Amino acid sequence: MGTAERKQREKELRKKQILKAAEKIITRKGMLSTTMEEIAESCELSKGTIYLYFKNKEELNLSILIMVLENFTRIMEKNLKKLNTFEERLRSIGESYLEFYKNYPGDFKIMNHNPEQHPEIEHSSRELERDLLATSSKLWGVVENVIREGMDLGLIRKDIDPLEIGISLWASSNGMIQIMEHIRSDAQRGVHEKSNIEEMDEYSRRFMGMDFEQMLRNLWAAVNNSILVKPAY
Amino acid sequence: MGTAERKQREKELRKKQILKAAEKIITRKGMLSTTMEEIAESCELSKGTIYLYFKNKEELNLSILIMVLENFTRIMEKNLKKLNTFEERLRSIGESYLEFYKNYPGDFKIMNHNPEQHPEIEHSSRELERDLLATSSKLWGVVENVIREGMDLGLIRKDIDPLEIGISLWASSNGMIQIMEHIRSDAQRGVHEKSNIEEMDEYSRRFMGMDFEQMLRNLWAAVNNSILVKPAY
DNA sequence: ACAATAAACTGACCGGCAGTCATTATGTGC
DNA sequence: GCACATAATGACTGCCGGTCAGTTTATTGT
Fold first, then answer.
1. Is the separation of the CB atoms in B200 and B212 below 8 Å?
2. pLDDT of A209 over the 50 cut
3. For B115-153, how does the pLDDT look when each residue is reduced to its tens digit (9 = 90+)?
């Protein structure tokens, strides 16, 4: 009798529906401003029902984060598949990141959202934690593989850890974009509609006299240069 | 008659007292978990009074952020003054950052706290915005000056923008530490007491098999190498 | 077809917190 | 010691995350 299985599938489906609906709102309003009530309304359920599928708001947010990370990894992998030379592939990682930031600014913000810890509150399920760790590990792994590829080709110094480079690139990109968000929000607190690269560029130029994308590319170049056997000065 | 002036001074003093008290709590509990009531209690005032000195919680948080940034800039400048050679001074910037992270983990968290924007809510005062921008500009400026010094000595390539390097270093360091916080909080959601370098290192080694400080230093080296005239491989 | 049982769903309610405001207390000038 | 301004208060409002007793809907056994 497949009823139990169908029930299970339906339950998973509902969960996905809620996640999708929540993502839609959160990408517009941000995690903090979005209320559980709003999410419930948008998928035509009551607030209580949401809590049948997610223990609390934090778990819901975490689940969305996992979804977004998976999505980004997919994009990055898709872009990598199209390319043949190692140089292109190394460059492609940064480009994917920038592309994601441009095309999905809301999701990007989710990706970089760092939840504040409340020591008193009971923490989210171990399972979800493991999922998140696994998902981000997979993401870094993709970068790691490209670096490793470069090592095999003798193009990248073998005395460094490929994962370390992956994380460095990732970290510095995040940091750079965050600093830009900071500058933008300092400059235009509460007035803007949504994050986009043109706006970012404008502020970047206005306040620091330089192009944002160019800065990001230069930073990547800096990291890349230091890992290549023959740096391209 | 100096009464008005004294009143003014007293008002400023109160504001500082509130800020100090708030900082003390926030460094322990974080910005989100700290309530206005708690802050009020800790400086023996009522909640309403706090709102006479700060328009809302966001403005209070922003004022604290400015205070923390000023403090960090002071530390960085103090460390720079002690050193004579350019190489030491360049290195010192990164070390100051790490030192601040180790010694004032709560303040460090404030420094990296990115407030979510609520478009509906009226934004904070223009004056405060300008203060924040001026303060962070001053911070980057310190880095910029060291880079410029290196250029004058012919040790740093002149075809790059010193401010850009300053921001890059700052951004990548922030990003790196944030990613570590992420990993740590993924691994140990809600269980830890407070941020400290030993704990960070433990997680860094456990999950990525590498030392956190070493990673940070390597990242700085990467950026530095790409700006030096003769990279030190 | 229908009762028994389980599973999904609801929304009124609770507690906590940001922010408000009518009222009270304190200090200053005359 | 009175008039006035300024500082401070805390009860109150509205919002939101989270709960739970009760209701609706689906499934199973006979």
1. yes
2. yes
3. 665 544 445 677 888 888 889 889 888 988 998 998 899
CB contact under 8 A, A115 and B33: no
Cβ count within 10 A of residue B74: 11
The token duo for A110 is: 């989710």
Please give the nucleotide, over all strands, whose C1' is closest to the CA of residue A55: D18
**Local structure of B59: helix, strand or coil:** helix
**In terms of pTM, does the model score above 0.70?**
yes
For residue A204 the two structure tokens come to 């970047």
CA gyration radius, chain B:
20
pLDDT in tens, B203-231: 555 555 556 677 677 777 766 666 666 55
Q: Is A226 near chain B, with CB under 8 Å?
A: yes
CB within 8 Å: B182 and A114: yes
The answer to whether residue A132 neighbours chain B at the CB level (below 8 Å) is yes
**Which residues make Cβ contacts (< 8 Å) with residue A123, sequence separation at least 6?**
A129, B189, B190, B191
Nearest to A121 among B168, B190, B193 (CB): B190
CB atoms within 10 A of CB B2: 8
Q: Which residues of A touch B69 (CB under 8 A)?
A: none
Rounded, the Å distance between the CA of A49 and C1' of C8 is 8
Q: What are phi and psi of B156, to 5 degrees?
A: -125, 140
Q: Is A206 on the interface with B (CB under 8 A)?
A: no
What is chain A's length? 233
CA distance B221 to A172: 13
> Three-state DSSP class for A199?
helix
Residue B166: partners with Cβ closer than 8 Å, 6 or more residues away: B140, B141, B142, B143, B144, B147
